[in-house]
Amino acid sequence: MNKFGLSNFVRPSIFRSHCLGSIKTPTSVSTFVRFARTSAKKKNRGELSASQVRQKNLLSAVSGARKVPRKLDMCVEDLIRHNTVTRAWALYQKEIRDKRAQNLERQYRMIDEACDALKSAGDRNLYNKATKREFGKRFPMELRVPTDTPPKIVWQYEWSPEEKEKK
Amino acid sequence: MSSRLLINRSIKSVGFGNSAARRFNSSVSSLKVQSQAAKQALLQGVSQNRSTTLSKKASLRYNSPEGLDQVFPFAYEIIQTRSKSLYLQASELEKQIAQETNANQVQALKQQREALLVEAEINNPEVQYNFQMNQINMEVPVYRHLAKQKWSKYEMIKMIQRFETLHVIPDTLPTINPEVEVNVQFPNFVNKWVENGEILSTKVTSRAPIFKIQEFNEIPQGQKYTILVIDPDTPDIKNNSFSTSLLWGLTDIEVSLNNPLVHFDSRQLIDYVPPVPEKNTPTHRYVVWVFRQNIDSPPIQSNSIEDGVQRNRFDIRAFVKQHNLQPVGGHVWRNAWDRFTEEVRQDYGLPAGRVFSKERNSVRL
Fold it and tell me: Is the keyword Transferase assigned to this protein (chain A) (predicted)?
């Protein structure tokens, strides 16, 4: 931020290549403010004249696209190499993601199997103890993981807690 | 003819999936970059080797993105490892296919294997380079996949759009589900593939066009094609309407993936008659329909289209139904009466053209 509260995001190359070809580019761009006027009286050596500043300001107002960071210009080989790297990174990430999901799935399956085993063991006490709801616990087992979008099945109308079924 | 075809001829088609585990770049020549300099620049970076795609002057001031050369070998390794495992899976599928007896199951397995072969090679930088440089072999699944992707992203959409806006569908056939790329060129208009919907001079269309039928799937043994060129805008004064006339019919056409050009000596159902629109009739559409013939159906007899009778008032829908044809692609160009039309009529010995009134009658033609 400069003293006018504006960020300095203007690239110095703007003025080099355009119609102001003969004008020397100011070494420090940070002094440049959009729409700022410089009076002719205050002109210092090495700085731009009033008319030049006006042109400069005009250009900066017109050519907004030139302030956007320049696209990466790559030759064909480098573009393909770049795409290869991007694809490899995506594949590597996917591999990690898949491994993690597989692991979680396996864990869930084992929990499920263990609960089933307890259920069929005859003594319901063990099963009830294992699946007992813990009130006041910050992250209970049955907590729904927060998601960005609502679930596809919004409400499970069929489901009811076991206590109710008993009654 | 494009340079791609010339290159393709020199590349021998290669059988797939015969060897077991395979990394890419191993045995199939069309999956490698042919030029050694280009290959080095691609795989080792352009900082050590001069880029073959940049001019000498441009390469002097060109700098590779920072870090790309350092990270590329690791990325290449990842992609090669993955490709190796995919080829292993494909070879396992190959064994399954050999054991399978159910034809439908075999078809499904073959599709799975082809998808694996595409996936194994699609990230190969050499394949990507070859595709960009148009040095491709359509026998190889990955190139077919890339070519289809490219076609269906632009050319196919444009073709459907032209067919819809010019009302080619449903005026000629009810709809189209394009599966092949059809290109048309006229011998009087060398090296210019006609764009869909383009208005051409009758001089240009005075000689029979050259067709290109590019398939993107493997072509089954004995697959043949039929091409019909029709004009649905022939004035029909009796009914105060328009009728369809047949300009050209070709049948039993055989094309291959690497040789998509339709051979000149293909069997003709009917001779080519050039478009000669009458003066003051609206711009005529000339529609090329490409059909896949049913392999089991008998060949279409040329006497089923009798000259003079069927050429005028040709019913394309009935014809397609009768011969069990599957429309897979098409093309449309347009002609209007111009200063060459009378000349073309004379060349072909056609009767003198009629001149319609410029004034519209109270009853619409």
Answer: no
